[in-house]
């Protein structure tokens, strides 16, 4: 396994192995359409008889729907039809988002549009379909909906208090899920500790803000009983199953087409009631219905994430060795667990990941997941990781300070040794092979720590406060069915790829993973070119159409390269073997004595060209009569791949942030940022590096800017891009990315995921850097986002 | 959201404008650069019956100097302010303010007249106009009138514009050797509305005595907030660390900031003090700055 | 109330005449009336920059311009800038640097970046960052975009020097 021959591994130049593409910075072949404005996003699709949907959304956090008067709306020019929850429930079954392996988890049935009550401000209540989006909005404005406002349960801290509003009375209380993981003896460890440090952390509720909003066109064709859905989604096959199941259709009658997607980051992997409503309306009307969320709708109805309060304690001995982590996590997830991944996974990940990079004997972590009348939360990029990393790394820095140790030294002392693998973490996570120490070493080669510390000391004399912060992290990638499938969710952990040679020797590969901009199609083309032996320019990739590509899970949890890439490699190798078998028959040579290089069949030993693939294709497809009768000649091969040995392929890394705090204004200026990560085999450094940087910037967003702010009545206050602050170019630092490669042995390719590493570690590094900067002033911050107001409060400048 | 249905009319002279306004009725609104107005349509916060496009009225364009007055036509865009040589020379505060407004694409459309008419409490230009002692030139079918900028802004998104009246120009007293002008602000991100901002205009005589001072804050109240107490503490005194501290201390009596998403009154007052020191320190003679 | 206005304008070098809805902004008009889908709407309230196109030679927010006001205007979109070859080097640099991922912001980002090439041919990295800071990109870390623009500025400067 893992014996991929690259020029590097053989000590050769690229010219010696011209079609070795693994590890090369090949520009994305599909990037040109993006820079020329020739991509095709869902809103770019137009269909005959298309109508447009808009939604009346609840103005209340919690209210009973008393009546819906549609008469005025129906008179608005252009309005075609109005739908209520009851109308849609006739064609669509409700769903309940629980996973069987999350013991005791509960949630309420959810419909496309609610039947009796609205449970968050922004929930779609009534749908209007019209000739244009503008007319549909006019129709919404003309609706008369009467509500009886109900008390709202907004604060997660009081969700389980006696006498609180129970959002779904049939559930008995607002508790969705709780779990405690415990290893060793926490009480004894705490009693024996030299020092115990503790803090309460908050991560701010934030959201993904895909620049292309959620977009869907559902087109039910009564004539042939098929539902075709153009969808901006990460998981076309999962959505195919959901549409089929909920709308009572056969899976083969549902086709989900996903062309270009304008950003997803986890936002577009969930079942949204308003999108289900679109499918229902098309099912009823028998014509295509388009819904493109606008930015207000996005803020109020895209999933939110990371609304956590975490109390943490870390016990250390006198030498700075970690004895015990004791963590208590509370998270509010809105009124429903989100289908089908559920909203308990983020809290569960906190339990799985706290303390993750370190070796220590005692662990206790509890998560408590509760309902509230706010927008539902669910999985968003780096699910749970930035929370667990902030808590862990924040406590580690507190311990270092308490002991007078250097932050690097305390990490070096406690990080899991690089030769300790395979091993299992106190939280029960199985690690196949990580590289914390090598990553730390690589980072320290990049970060000029001595120069930075000297500058820091010098600047402090001038009243300028700069800080350097570190954060080690682990990241869960390449998930097996242990993540969702085991709990009963129809979410595929396997993925497939079909690779086909066309008559002229060019190659088409169809993959179940999807392109969201991260470069999936580029790396698949590299892998297939490498596996078959053709120039990458001869490979065309097809993704995002459930009718044509092999069944797969799509893009989530950093599985595209590791799972989809391996399926592509296996199918490409299978095609190569088949081609060589045919070539052997044609050239009267043994297959193993031949090879394919840059689209030519060559003699393996001498490299001498024997036949171009175009000639082989011509004969197979047009002159099959000249080949031996018994020769199999399928120049198309399909392979599927699933991980088998480990539930997840963990990756690791470490980040560092160097910043300056303006202690008068509380503003943070990011000066420089570093990240070393180990995603196993790097297929394309160009793509991985900017993926990591983009991830860091989303982490920076959570740390400094992004916050879905609700008032005490459950009204969302941050409903525009002027109020909800996303990171922009001017404030972002230059980011240096380094790699350590520990390939997973589960696959030939050895790739793990890379897309979430940046987001996992950045907030913790920034928090630690701010607290390092503020150390001489005795101030610390633990509540994200670290706004000027919070920093000024920590400094005692304001109350 | 999509804009509500509305009418549209384009006019090319003030006479045409008066006729169009008359025809369209009281629910019509003037469209200049549209960078705020059209956004509010997308929020469905306003629903004008008709938008009357004045961007082609030549009389509202151009920057000129006559005597000791810099006349800035109402349709002068923020991008023009940033690069106009007359503005840079005679009203450096405006040249400095323009790049702080949003981003290049917005500055290519947004106009000074539109910004003043909107009277957004977080906007830079209304505060600049007050600090500079500008005069807002207004026109109506009945004729022209001039209103001091300090009287023009009347509170949250409220200006002293009569129905059917428009801003034609802003007149700014030209800066002299004794003028000291600056604008400073605290924003979360470049181009954002300020959490707090200060437009400061001082006149200082040859001996370094402040002969007049106007400290005008934005982003911390219901409009361009003149810090009268702080301004008064500076007047008649030599600018020094002590007088700056006195001005800072006086701000508490001047400002009554509301809470917004960035923070409460105490933080806003604190930022106002910080901005006051930062703005005024730049006017100290170098030896004082070092101290 | 007249809700349709006749306009004649130049789009990507071609003269077009249409009767447009007064409630259409420039991007609605380009996408809906002309089939030019390269400009995208990301917020429709003037903040995100995805709809940035060139109007009378300058970048503007397409969502904050009334289509009805465009009689006589000259509009250039990513399609026209691609066809003319004016920003070929910038586009190639974006591809080479992986300065676009999902691509939704890219046409607007390119129009803004093209403005830097004209307005500030000697821009520093900080000035590039400042100039594009009204264009939101959620995928990249902005660094690849800054790198790409910087590459083109340097290449064009070298070309000028050689000439």
Describe this structure in words.
The complex is a heterotrimer of chains A (799), B (291) and C (163). By secondary structure, chain A is of the alpha+beta class. Chain A folds into 3 domains: 7-39 and 494-641, Aldehyde oxidase/xanthine dehydrogenase, molybdopterin binding domain (Aldehyde Oxidoreductase, domain 4), CATH 3.30.365; 43-150 and 210-301, Aldehyde oxidase/xanthine dehydrogenase, a/b hammerhead (Aldehyde Oxidoreductase, domain 3), CATH 3.90.1170.50; 304-481 and 645-794, Aldehyde oxidase/xanthine dehydrogenase, molybdopterin binding domain (Aldehyde Oxidoreductase, domain 4). Chain A contains 20 helices and 30 strands. In chain A, the strands form 8 sheets. A 7-stranded mixed sheet of chain A has the order 3-5-1-13-10-11-12, with helices on both faces. Chain A has a 5-stranded mixed sheet with strand order 7-17-16-15-8, sandwiched between helices. In chain A, helix 7 links the parallel strand 11 and strand 12 (254-257). Chain B is an alpha+beta fold. Chain B has 3 domains: 7-53, 2-Layer Sandwich (Uridine Diphospho-n-acetylenolpyruvylglucosamine Reductase, domain 2), CATH 3.30.43.10; 61-173, Uridine Diphospho-n-acetylenolpyruvylglucosamine Reductase, domain 3, CATH 3.30.465.10; 179-283, 2-Layer Sandwich (Enolase-like, domain 1), CATH 3.30.390. Chain B has helices at 14-24, 37-42, 78-83, 85-90, 92-97, 104-107, 112-118, 124-131, 149-152, 228-234, 241-254, 265-281, 286-290; strands at residues 7-10, 29-31, 50-53, 63-66, 69-73, 135-140, 143-148, 153-155, 158-159, 166-173, 179-186, 196-204, 210-218, 225-226. In chain B, the strands form 4 sheets. Chain B has a 5-stranded antiparallel sheet with strand order 4-5-10-6-7. Chain B has a 4-stranded antiparallel sheet with strand order 11-12-13-14, with helices on both faces. In chain B, strands 1-3-2 form a 3-stranded parallel sheet, covered by helices on one side. In chain B, helix 10 (228-234) packs antiparallel against helix 11 and helix 11 (241-254) packs antiparallel against helix 12. Chain B is globular. Chain C has 163 residues and is an alpha+beta fold. Chain C folds into 2 domains: 4-81, Beta-grasp domain (Ubiquitin-like (UB roll), Roll), CATH 3.10.20; 87-162, [2Fe-2S]-binding domain (DNA polymerase, domain 1, Orthogonal Bundle), CATH 1.10.150. Chain C is built from 6 helices and 5 strands. Chain C has helices at residues 26-33, 78-84, 88-96, 106-119, 125-131, 143-162, and strands spanning 4-11, 14-21, 52-55, 58-61, 74-76. Chain C has a 5-stranded mixed sheet with strand order 2-1-5-3-4. The longest helix of chain C has 20 residues, at 143-162. The model of chain C has no long low-confidence stretch (mean pLDDT 97). Chains in contact: A-B, A-C, B-C. Chains A and C meet through helix 2 and helix 18 of A and helix 2, helix 3, helix 4, helix 5 and helix 6 of C.
